[in-house]
Amino acid sequence: MPNILVNGDFETGSRVPWIGTTNWAITSNPDKVHSGTYAMEMKGGGNPSGEPRQLIANPAQYAGLQATFSLWVKVFNTFAYDARLWIWDGVYTSSIRFWEAGAVVGGPFVKVTVQRILDAAMTEFWVKITINTTHDEFSVDDGELLIPAAIPTVSIDPATEVEEETATGNGNITDNGGEDCDKRGICWNTSGNPTVEDDKSEETDPFGTGPFSRPITGLSPGTKYYAKAYAHNSAGYGYSSEESFTTKPNAPSNLACVAQSSSQIDVDWIKGTGATKTMVRRKVGSYPSDVTDGDQAYYGTGNSFSDTSLVRATHYYYRAWSWVEGSDI
Q1: Run of H or E including 69
Q2: Half-sphere exposure of 282 (CA within 13 A, CB side)
Q3: Domain-by-domain residue ranges, the chain?
Q4: Exposed, middle or buried: residue 85 (CB in 10 Å: 0-12, 13-18, 19+)?
Q5: Could you give the 3-state DSSP secondary structure of residue 300?
Q6: Which CATH architecture is the domain 24-146 placed in?
Q7: What's the CA gap between 239 and 216, in Å, rounded?
Q8: Which residue would you say has higher pLDDT here, 131 or 151?
């Protein structure tokens, strides 16, 4: 869970951003510090207007989640027993007294914790320490405000560099759910709605928000694939919507041309793996350089044809390309 409390351990040597801290002081007295160098102490003579509190920014993002506020507390007199920790969501409050957490006068530091399911309609979010009397004496240190992470929000962009057996998948973590993600990647299959139980390309590390790309390998030529980007944190996996792409078919092979007459050439080939159709183009003087160069002589599902109505005594050059729906020739 991410800790969203700012300066809860007071190691800045300052009370900022805690407010309402009149009659409170930062101390480095080892007897009043739980860990590190500093803590915050309340020494008799305080008043309710001096109760330290911290306003949590952007409260709406935490609506409906359980908040856990804790501080390590050490009590120095009996007046402090009824001092409390509070969570206030602008609608309701939850609190706990120090003695309810086991604090005793002259005893060791005790971790005092209060929890609350935050109101779904909350417009403000505070945590605070309230005092019982003007004679309370205690110190607090190592505070945390923990909010469960939400599942990451992820989007996906079209695959790039799509070849016969490889492609590049492109995703984007748009919201990490409140904590760094420990995994991100692309998953895919040929049936739709892929998950991490299918083939995947994954990397592990602490990841914040932002775009990422992953290599997709081990694909079959001329095949349609369905892909999702995903990211993982302590709340689970977040998936993008689904994108599809089709790998290129293998090129045709063994292209052969045989002149049958002064106006006909028979052409045959072996279809490329994954190809639905084959395009054959011819050109006078040199081989066609691409699928727009020269003249289209054939485009269909077969593996041979007869090219007729040719000009006598002319040298023709042929070249063939594979095609499958969803992929470029």
Answers
A1: strand 66-75
A2: 22
A3: 24-146, 153-246, 253-323
A4: buried
A5: strand
A6: Sandwich (2.60)
A7: 17
A8: 151
Print the SS3 string covering 70-87: EEEEEECCHHHHHCEEEE
Beta carbons of 90 and 81 less than 8 angstroms apart? no
Q: Look up the pTM and report it.
A: 0.73
The answer regarding whether domain 253-323 maps to CATH 2.60.40.10 reads yes
* Fold matches, 153-246 and 253-323: yes
Q: List pLDDT tens digits, range 266-304.
A: 999 999 999 999 999 999 999 999 999 999 999 999 999
Give the CA dihedral 113, 98, 44, 42, nearest 10 degrees: -20
Reported confidence tier of residue 83, pLDDT bands at 50, 70, 90: confident
CA-derived radius of gyration, the chain: 35
The pLDDT, as a whole number, for residue 57 is 87
Distance CA 184, CA 201 (A): 9
| Terminal-residue alpha carbon distance, the chain | 50
For the four alpha carbons of 43, 48, 50 and 55, in that order, the dihedral sign comes to positive
**Separation of alpha carbons 19 and 42, rounded Å:** 14
CATH superfamily of 153-246: Immunoglobulins (2.60.40.10)
> What does the DSSP 8-state code read for residue 234?
T
* 255 and 267 Cβ atoms separated by less than 8 Å: yes
Band the pLDDT of 21: cuts 50, 70, 90: low
Closest to 55 (Cα-Cα) out of 128, 118, 115: 128
pLDDT in tens, 220-269: 999 999 999 999 999 999 999 999 999 999 999 999 999 999 999 999 99
Give residue 116's identity as a one-letter amino acid code.
Answer: R
pLDDT tops 80 at residue 23: no
